[in-house]
Predict the 3D structure of the following.
Amino acid sequence: MSKKIVVAICGASGSIYGIRLLTALLKNPVKIYLVISTVGYKVLEHETGYRGESFSSFLKNNGITFNKNAYLYTYDQDDFFAPPASGSFRNDGMVIIPCSMKTLGAIASGMADNLIHRAADVNMKEKRPLILLPRETPLSIIHLKNMYVAAKAGATIMPPSPSFYSNPKNISDLVDSVIARVLDHLKIEHDLVKQWG
Ligand SMILES: Cc1cc2nc3c(=O)[nH]c(=O)nc-3n(C[C@H](O)[C@H](O)[C@H](O)COP(=O)(O)O)c2cc1C
């Protein structure tokens, strides 16, 4: 059975992480349920070559190849009728990459007023994996408290902190050092980074 993964891209800096995660996931026979926030789209335009086309076209035009059994479903952030809005939708995990401090705050407070917040809320209540890659620096006590609360509720807090021990040669290598950890947590095989030892 192919894995079902919910992916959300928020309006924090680092859209490249979301794109690289989708690239790696779609090489596998997976079903991806993608939600990009309104500001997420704007930051994507600012940081990447995205120009408002369908997200599948954008990925394919950037040379990203889909496994023949990979499916990418995209949903509007206000679509509360989408599968990830319901606890009855069984999935193998949700990743918010990057996760803004606003979305983190909404998750920590239970204020599910868009599909990203709601899907995260659902995965926490259903005890399914929720991986957050919060991006901000420095962190205020409010950000730290929200991360603590989300972690207590079952989320994995995985700041996008690239590692240097694998001797990265370029930005892609640095980004992949982060994506490798996400895939490890989703239990998806990859060869992005050599395992230590
Ligand atoms: C270019 C750009 C970069 C941003 N970077 C960050 C960031 O790194 N972290 C963050 O928490 N917010 C960042 N913001 C602010 C968020 O986009 C803003 O708080 C927004 O309300 C987040 O909404 P969302 O979580 O629904 O995407 C950035 C905004 C812009 C325009």
Notes: The longest strand covers residues 3-9. The chain has a mean pLDDT of 95. Residues 10-13, 37, 39-40, 43, 46, 100-103, 135-136 surround flavin mononucleotide (CB under 6 Å). Helices lie at 15-25, 38-47, 55-61, 101-109, 115-125, 141-152, 171-186.
